[in-house]
Write a structure and sequence with these properties.
Elements lengths: L2 H18 L2 H27 E5 L5 E3 L4 E9 L7 E10 L5 E8 L6 E8 L5 E13 L6 E5 L6 E6 L7 H10 L18 E6 L11 H7 L3 E5 L6 E6 L7 H20 L3 E6 L6 E4 L2 E5 L3 H14 L11 E5 L7
Parallel strand pairs: 2-9, 12-13, 12-16
Antiparallel strand pairs: 1-3, 3-6, 4-5, 4-7, 7-8, 7-9, 10-11, 13-15, 14-15
Helix pairs in contact: 1-2, 3-5, 5-6
Amino acid sequence: MNLFLYLILLAAAWIFYPLYENELSFAVLVTLMILPFLLLITLIYNIRTIRLGVSDESPTIFMGQKGEVRLKMINKGLLPTADIALSVRTRSMLTGREEKSTIRLGVGAGSSGSAVISADTSHCGVFRVYVDNIRFSDVFGFFSWKLRTGSEPVGEIVVIPRLDEDCEDEARSIATSSLNTENDDEPVPVSGPGDVIDFRDFRPGDRPVMIHHKLSARFDKNIVKIMGLPQCRRFLTAPDTTDGLTSDETDILLGRALSISYYIGQLGNESFVAAAERSADCVSFNGGYAVAVRDMDDYISAARTMVMYGAADISAANGFICCEVGLERSES
Protein backbone atom coordinates (compact mmCIF):
# COMPACT_ATOMS: atom_id res chain seq x y z
CA MET A 1 0.00 0.00 0.00
CA ASN A 2 1.05 3.59 -0.34
CA LEU A 3 0.02 7.03 0.85
CA PHE A 4 -2.44 7.58 -2.01
CA LEU A 5 -4.33 4.38 -1.21
CA TYR A 6 -4.39 5.25 2.48
CA LEU A 7 -5.95 8.65 1.76
CA ILE A 8 -8.65 7.03 -0.37
CA LEU A 9 -9.49 4.57 2.42
CA LEU A 10 -9.54 7.34 5.02
CA ALA A 11 -11.87 9.46 2.85
CA ALA A 12 -14.14 6.48 2.32
CA ALA A 13 -14.28 5.84 6.07
CA TRP A 14 -15.29 9.46 6.69
CA ILE A 15 -18.08 9.15 4.12
CA PHE A 16 -19.49 5.80 5.19
CA TYR A 17 -19.48 6.38 8.95
CA PRO A 18 -22.28 9.03 8.90
CA LEU A 19 -24.24 6.78 6.54
CA TYR A 20 -24.10 3.65 8.70
CA GLU A 21 -23.18 4.94 12.17
CA ASN A 22 -22.48 1.47 13.50
CA GLU A 23 -19.62 -0.01 15.50
CA LEU A 24 -17.84 -1.45 12.45
CA SER A 25 -17.71 1.81 10.51
CA PHE A 26 -16.57 3.65 13.64
CA ALA A 27 -13.81 1.10 14.30
CA VAL A 28 -12.57 1.35 10.70
CA LEU A 29 -12.47 5.15 10.89
CA VAL A 30 -10.61 5.22 14.22
CA THR A 31 -8.16 2.57 13.07
CA LEU A 32 -7.30 4.50 9.92
CA MET A 33 -6.89 7.72 11.90
CA ILE A 34 -4.44 6.31 14.46
CA LEU A 35 -2.64 4.07 11.96
CA PRO A 36 0.14 6.64 11.16
CA PHE A 37 0.92 7.04 14.87
CA LEU A 38 1.10 3.27 15.33
CA LEU A 39 3.40 2.96 12.33
CA LEU A 40 5.69 5.70 13.68
CA ILE A 41 5.91 4.06 17.12
CA THR A 42 6.63 0.70 15.49
CA LEU A 43 9.36 2.22 13.33
CA ILE A 44 11.08 3.82 16.33
CA TYR A 45 10.86 0.55 18.25
CA ASN A 46 12.38 -1.42 15.35
CA ILE A 47 15.27 1.01 14.98
CA ARG A 48 16.16 0.48 18.65
CA THR A 49 15.87 -3.33 18.63
CA ILE A 50 17.43 -4.36 15.31
CA ARG A 51 21.19 -4.85 14.95
CA LEU A 52 23.53 -5.47 12.03
CA GLY A 53 25.75 -8.54 12.26
CA VAL A 54 28.18 -10.56 10.11
CA SER A 55 28.39 -14.36 10.17
CA ASP A 56 32.18 -14.36 9.66
CA GLU A 57 33.92 -11.01 9.87
CA SER A 58 37.15 -11.93 8.12
CA PRO A 59 37.28 -15.36 6.45
CA THR A 60 40.40 -16.54 4.62
CA ILE A 61 39.98 -18.46 1.37
CA PHE A 62 42.22 -19.69 -1.44
CA MET A 63 42.20 -18.16 -4.90
CA GLY A 64 39.38 -19.52 -7.02
CA GLN A 65 37.23 -20.61 -4.10
CA LYS A 66 33.75 -19.20 -3.56
CA GLY A 67 34.01 -16.13 -1.34
CA GLU A 68 31.03 -14.65 0.49
CA VAL A 69 30.31 -12.19 3.28
CA ARG A 70 26.93 -12.88 4.90
CA LEU A 71 25.26 -9.81 6.41
CA LYS A 72 22.61 -10.40 9.08
CA MET A 73 19.88 -8.13 10.43
CA ILE A 74 19.00 -9.43 13.88
CA ASN A 75 15.58 -8.48 15.30
CA LYS A 76 15.54 -8.86 19.08
CA GLY A 77 12.21 -7.11 19.41
CA LEU A 78 8.60 -8.29 19.54
CA LEU A 79 7.49 -6.63 16.29
CA PRO A 80 8.36 -7.61 12.70
CA THR A 81 9.93 -5.14 10.30
CA ALA A 82 8.35 -4.19 7.02
CA ASP A 83 11.25 -2.86 4.98
CA ILE A 84 14.97 -2.48 5.67
CA ALA A 85 17.23 -1.15 2.90
CA LEU A 86 20.99 -1.58 3.27
CA SER A 87 23.26 0.61 1.15
CA VAL A 88 26.18 -1.76 0.55
CA ARG A 89 29.57 -0.83 -0.91
CA THR A 90 32.23 -3.40 -1.80
CA ARG A 91 35.87 -2.54 -2.42
CA SER A 92 38.80 -4.56 -3.74
CA MET A 93 41.89 -3.31 -1.91
CA LEU A 94 44.10 -4.68 -4.70
CA THR A 95 42.53 -2.80 -7.62
CA GLY A 96 40.66 -0.07 -5.74
CA ARG A 97 37.48 -0.93 -7.63
CA GLU A 98 34.21 -0.18 -5.79
CA GLU A 99 30.67 -1.34 -6.42
CA LYS A 100 27.48 -0.12 -4.76
CA SER A 101 24.14 -1.86 -4.34
CA THR A 102 20.97 -1.74 -2.24
CA ILE A 103 19.71 -4.82 -0.41
CA ARG A 104 16.16 -4.98 0.97
CA LEU A 105 15.16 -7.22 3.86
CA GLY A 106 12.12 -7.94 5.97
CA VAL A 107 12.76 -9.49 9.37
CA GLY A 108 10.25 -11.24 11.58
CA ALA A 109 9.93 -10.71 15.30
CA GLY A 110 12.69 -12.45 17.29
CA SER A 111 14.42 -13.70 14.14
CA SER A 112 17.03 -12.59 11.62
CA GLY A 113 17.34 -11.99 7.90
CA SER A 114 20.50 -12.32 5.85
CA ALA A 115 22.00 -11.21 2.57
CA VAL A 116 25.04 -12.69 0.82
CA ILE A 117 27.73 -10.48 -0.76
CA SER A 118 29.93 -12.32 -3.25
CA ALA A 119 33.65 -11.53 -3.60
CA ASP A 120 36.00 -11.63 -6.57
CA THR A 121 38.57 -14.34 -5.75
CA SER A 122 40.45 -14.42 -9.05
CA HIS A 123 43.44 -12.63 -7.47
CA CYS A 124 45.10 -12.43 -4.08
CA GLY A 125 44.01 -9.48 -2.02
CA VAL A 126 41.52 -8.14 0.49
CA PHE A 127 37.86 -7.72 -0.42
CA ARG A 128 36.02 -5.44 2.03
CA VAL A 129 32.32 -4.82 2.55
CA TYR A 130 30.93 -1.55 3.87
CA VAL A 131 27.35 -0.72 4.87
CA ASP A 132 27.13 3.04 4.44
CA ASN A 133 23.64 3.36 5.91
CA ILE A 134 20.49 1.44 6.81
CA ARG A 135 17.08 2.90 5.94
CA PHE A 136 14.04 1.72 7.95
CA SER A 137 10.55 2.22 6.48
CA ASP A 138 7.04 1.29 7.56
CA VAL A 139 4.75 -0.85 5.45
CA PHE A 140 2.83 2.11 4.04
CA GLY A 141 5.93 4.18 3.35
CA PHE A 142 4.68 7.02 5.57
CA PHE A 143 7.89 7.29 7.54
CA SER A 144 11.52 6.34 7.06
CA TRP A 145 14.74 6.82 8.97
CA LYS A 146 18.29 6.59 7.66
CA LEU A 147 20.78 5.22 10.16
CA ARG A 148 24.44 5.80 9.31
CA THR A 149 26.76 3.01 10.33
CA GLY A 150 30.22 4.63 10.10
CA SER A 151 33.16 4.29 7.74
CA GLU A 152 34.67 1.03 9.01
CA PRO A 153 34.16 -2.19 7.00
CA VAL A 154 31.64 -4.62 8.48
CA GLY A 155 33.36 -7.63 6.94
CA GLU A 156 36.14 -8.68 4.63
CA ILE A 157 37.54 -11.67 2.75
CA VAL A 158 41.27 -12.30 2.49
CA VAL A 159 42.17 -14.23 -0.69
CA ILE A 160 45.50 -16.09 -0.49
CA PRO A 161 47.48 -18.20 -3.02
CA ARG A 162 47.28 -21.96 -2.99
CA LEU A 163 50.27 -24.08 -1.98
CA ASP A 164 52.37 -24.79 -5.09
CA GLU A 165 53.64 -28.38 -4.94
CA ASP A 166 56.03 -27.66 -7.83
CA CYS A 167 58.09 -25.55 -5.41
CA GLU A 168 59.10 -28.56 -3.28
CA ASP A 169 62.16 -29.43 -5.40
CA GLU A 170 63.26 -25.81 -5.46
CA ALA A 171 62.94 -25.56 -1.68
CA ARG A 172 65.05 -28.70 -1.30
CA SER A 173 67.67 -27.24 -3.65
CA ILE A 174 67.83 -24.01 -1.63
CA ALA A 175 68.16 -25.84 1.67
CA THR A 176 70.84 -28.16 0.30
CA SER A 177 72.89 -25.48 -1.44
CA SER A 178 73.15 -23.50 1.78
CA LEU A 179 75.17 -26.36 3.24
CA ASN A 180 77.74 -26.37 0.46
CA THR A 181 81.14 -24.79 0.98
CA GLU A 182 83.28 -22.99 -1.55
CA ASN A 183 85.65 -25.94 -1.98
CA ASP A 184 84.20 -29.33 -2.86
CA ASP A 185 87.15 -31.03 -1.16
CA GLU A 186 86.20 -29.59 2.20
CA PRO A 187 83.83 -31.50 4.48
CA VAL A 188 80.20 -30.35 4.67
CA PRO A 189 79.57 -29.11 8.22
CA VAL A 190 76.73 -31.12 9.70
CA SER A 191 77.46 -31.27 13.42
CA GLY A 192 75.91 -29.14 16.13
CA PRO A 193 76.66 -25.45 16.64
CA GLY A 194 79.92 -24.72 18.42
CA ASP A 195 81.64 -27.93 17.22
CA VAL A 196 84.99 -27.56 15.42
CA ILE A 197 85.04 -30.13 12.65
CA ASP A 198 88.16 -29.08 10.70
CA PHE A 199 90.70 -26.32 9.97
CA ARG A 200 91.82 -24.47 6.85
CA ASP A 201 94.00 -21.54 5.78
CA PHE A 202 92.74 -18.04 6.37
CA ARG A 203 90.90 -16.41 3.44
CA PRO A 204 90.03 -12.76 2.82
CA GLY A 205 86.66 -12.10 4.41
CA ASP A 206 87.05 -14.62 7.25
CA ARG A 207 86.24 -13.25 10.68
CA PRO A 208 89.32 -12.79 12.90
CA VAL A 209 87.47 -14.41 15.79
CA MET A 210 87.58 -17.74 13.88
CA ILE A 211 91.44 -17.82 13.85
CA HIS A 212 92.95 -20.70 15.85
CA HIS A 213 95.92 -19.00 17.50
CA LYS A 214 97.84 -22.10 18.62
CA LEU A 215 97.81 -23.72 15.18
CA SER A 216 98.55 -20.37 13.52
CA ALA A 217 101.63 -19.94 15.70
CA ARG A 218 102.80 -23.51 15.03
CA PHE A 219 102.53 -23.25 11.22
CA ASP A 220 103.45 -19.56 11.07
CA LYS A 221 100.29 -18.66 9.15
CA ASN A 222 96.72 -17.91 10.01
CA ILE A 223 94.57 -21.01 10.43
CA VAL A 224 90.79 -20.69 10.89
CA LYS A 225 88.32 -23.10 12.40
CA ILE A 226 85.52 -24.75 10.39
CA MET A 227 82.47 -24.86 12.63
CA GLY A 228 79.52 -27.18 12.38
CA LEU A 229 76.18 -25.70 11.38
CA PRO A 230 73.13 -26.20 13.58
CA GLN A 231 70.92 -29.03 12.42
CA CYS A 232 67.94 -26.65 12.42
CA ARG A 233 68.74 -23.48 10.47
CA ARG A 234 66.70 -20.29 10.07
CA PHE A 235 65.58 -19.42 6.55
CA LEU A 236 63.87 -16.16 5.66
CA THR A 237 61.99 -16.02 2.35
CA ALA A 238 60.49 -12.99 0.63
CA PRO A 239 59.14 -12.20 -2.85
CA ASP A 240 61.17 -9.90 -5.06
CA THR A 241 58.88 -6.88 -4.91
CA THR A 242 59.84 -5.38 -8.25
CA ASP A 243 57.67 -2.47 -9.33
CA GLY A 244 55.38 -2.80 -12.33
CA LEU A 245 54.15 -6.35 -11.71
CA THR A 246 50.72 -7.32 -13.00
CA SER A 247 48.10 -8.87 -10.72
CA ASP A 248 48.83 -12.32 -12.20
CA GLU A 249 52.58 -11.91 -11.63
CA THR A 250 52.02 -10.74 -8.06
CA ASP A 251 49.87 -13.82 -7.37
CA ILE A 252 52.55 -16.15 -8.76
CA LEU A 253 55.37 -14.42 -6.91
CA LEU A 254 53.59 -14.43 -3.56
CA GLY A 255 52.54 -18.06 -3.98
CA ARG A 256 56.09 -19.17 -4.82
CA ALA A 257 57.64 -17.38 -1.84
CA LEU A 258 55.13 -18.88 0.58
CA SER A 259 55.33 -22.37 -0.93
CA ILE A 260 59.14 -22.42 -0.88
CA SER A 261 59.11 -21.32 2.76
CA TYR A 262 56.59 -24.04 3.60
CA TYR A 263 58.63 -26.83 2.01
CA ILE A 264 61.89 -25.57 3.55
CA GLY A 265 60.16 -25.91 6.91
CA GLN A 266 59.01 -29.42 6.02
CA LEU A 267 62.67 -30.39 5.59
CA GLY A 268 63.26 -29.78 9.30
CA ASN A 269 64.49 -26.19 9.18
CA GLU A 270 63.19 -23.08 10.87
CA SER A 271 61.40 -21.30 8.05
CA PHE A 272 59.95 -17.78 7.96
CA VAL A 273 58.51 -15.32 5.46
CA ALA A 274 59.20 -11.59 5.71
CA ALA A 275 56.13 -9.43 6.37
CA ALA A 276 55.86 -5.67 6.75
CA GLU A 277 53.58 -5.83 9.80
CA ARG A 278 53.54 -7.85 13.00
CA SER A 279 51.35 -10.91 13.37
CA ALA A 280 51.11 -13.71 15.91
CA ASP A 281 54.21 -15.88 16.42
CA CYS A 282 56.75 -13.74 14.62
CA VAL A 283 60.34 -12.57 15.06
CA SER A 284 61.30 -8.96 14.38
CA PHE A 285 64.31 -7.89 12.36
CA ASN A 286 65.58 -4.60 11.01
CA GLY A 287 62.94 -3.66 8.44
CA GLY A 288 60.13 -6.11 9.13
CA TYR A 289 58.88 -9.23 10.82
CA ALA A 290 59.65 -12.89 10.19
CA VAL A 291 56.47 -14.98 10.34
CA ALA A 292 57.00 -18.67 11.06
CA VAL A 293 55.83 -21.26 8.51
CA ARG A 294 55.88 -24.71 10.15
CA ASP A 295 52.70 -26.36 8.89
CA MET A 296 49.60 -25.67 6.81
CA ASP A 297 47.96 -23.56 9.51
CA ASP A 298 51.09 -21.40 9.63
CA TYR A 299 51.06 -21.18 5.83
CA ILE A 300 47.52 -19.78 5.86
CA SER A 301 48.33 -17.35 8.67
CA ALA A 302 51.54 -16.14 6.99
CA ALA A 303 49.81 -15.81 3.61
CA ARG A 304 47.05 -13.77 5.20
CA THR A 305 49.60 -11.45 6.84
CA MET A 306 51.52 -10.91 3.59
CA VAL A 307 48.38 -10.32 1.53
CA MET A 308 47.06 -7.76 4.02
CA TYR A 309 50.29 -5.92 4.87
CA GLY A 310 52.81 -6.77 2.15
CA ALA A 311 56.31 -8.25 2.26
CA ALA A 312 59.34 -6.72 3.95
CA ASP A 313 62.82 -5.98 2.62
CA ILE A 314 65.24 -8.67 3.80
CA SER A 315 68.47 -6.96 2.77
CA ALA A 316 69.14 -5.95 6.39
CA ALA A 317 67.97 -9.22 8.00
CA ASN A 318 70.73 -10.71 10.14
CA GLY A 319 70.71 -14.17 11.66
CA PHE A 320 68.83 -15.75 8.75
CA ILE A 321 69.69 -17.55 5.55
CA CYS A 322 67.88 -15.14 3.24
CA CYS A 323 66.19 -16.16 0.00
CA GLU A 324 64.55 -13.59 -2.26
CA VAL A 325 62.20 -15.33 -4.69
CA GLY A 326 61.67 -14.03 -8.22
CA LEU A 327 59.27 -14.99 -10.99
CA GLU A 328 61.72 -17.33 -12.71
CA ARG A 329 62.28 -20.71 -11.12
CA SER A 330 65.86 -21.48 -10.17
CA GLU A 331 67.58 -24.48 -11.72
CA SER A 332 67.80 -27.51 -9.41
